[in-house]
Amino acid sequence: MIAAVSLGFFGSIFALIGMKCTKVGGSDKAKAKIACLAGIVFILSGLCSMTGCSLYANKITTEFFDPLFVEQK
To answer: pLDDT under 50 in the chain at which residues?
Structure first.
C-alpha cells in the first residue's frame, strides 16, 4: 500500500508536468511521453493497491474460517 501511495504521488507529478497547459516539460512530443509515463505509473499504482487489498482480504477470510483461530469469535 505504501508503494501504491508513493507511485500515485509520482504519477500525479508526472501528469501535471505532462499537461499541455504547463510551461515545464519541453515540447509537445516530450510532454506526450511524460503523460504516457504518468499513465503507466498510475496503472502500476492501481496494481500495487489491488495486490495489497487482496492479500489483506485473504488473511481476514482465512482467519475467519479457521476453526483453531479463537481470537475474537
So the answer is: none
